[in-house]
Amino acid sequence: MKPARIPLTVTAPNHWAEMPWGEYYREALEQQLKPWMAKLYGFHLLKIGNLSAEINTDACAISHQVNVSLDGDPMQVKADPLHLPFAEKSVDACLLAHTLPWCQDPHSLLREADRVLIDDGWLILTAFNPVSLMGLRKVVPVLRNRMPYNSRMFSLMRQLDWLGLLNFEVLHQSRFQVLPWTRQGGRILSTHVPALGCLQVIVARKRTVPLTLNPTRQSKSRNPMRQTVGATRQYRKPQD
């Protein structure tokens, strides 16, 4: 198995539209995430990475939503995702939409998300599935250096193992969009052979184990996070 941490050799896309069929991927992810977005609650949602910023989270009840990235647009906080400028346990939910595939140190990224999340906070991960048509195209030499095949593709089981080490409880996992070049992704194939879907989603919650059993739940201490100028509920470029 290749090591998770590598020297950064490629640049992540700033927009889904920079990838072939990227808008199809974004729409498919939004469809899959919509029911879960309605279940998120709290005060602060971090959308880490440029691609996360373009995911429509209008169905989410969390009103203060902040885009965090080193560059790109839209963005409210310019920061390295590996060193988030937020206090420990100050964020209710983190969205990493295809942030891991272009990250040089995915372990550190997950640990940083774990650090800023409150107890029982939500973590949503999306990525490409290596066991798919997308993964097969990645082995073609002429495509290997092109976007999005220059990204890293971690198996679902490997990501679940990382989350288990951080004591996250996985509530949902799925693979879909078997045919990447169609808007619907091949509905019949996605229904009967979802394991071959080129996209995968994981929804998890940060859990803590109490040292002693106590039926009385103590109130959780919260570190306030300042409202970010320009943070809004939805970030999508207007259609031409």
TrEMBL record:
Keyword Methyltransferase carried by entry: yes
Domain of life: Bacteria
UniProt key word Methyltransferase: yes
Gene3D superfamilies (UniProt xref): Vaccinia Virus protein VP39
Keywords tagged on the record: Methyltransferase, Transferase
GO annotation (BP), single: methylation
Compositionally biased intervals (Polar residues): 214-231
Domain named Methyltransferase type: residues: 76-125
InterPro entries: Methyltransf_11 (IPR013216), SAM-dependent_MTases_sf (IPR029063)
Region (Disordered): 214-240
Any GO molecular function: S-adenosylmethionine-dependent methyltransferase activity
Name assigned to this protein: Methyltransferase family protein
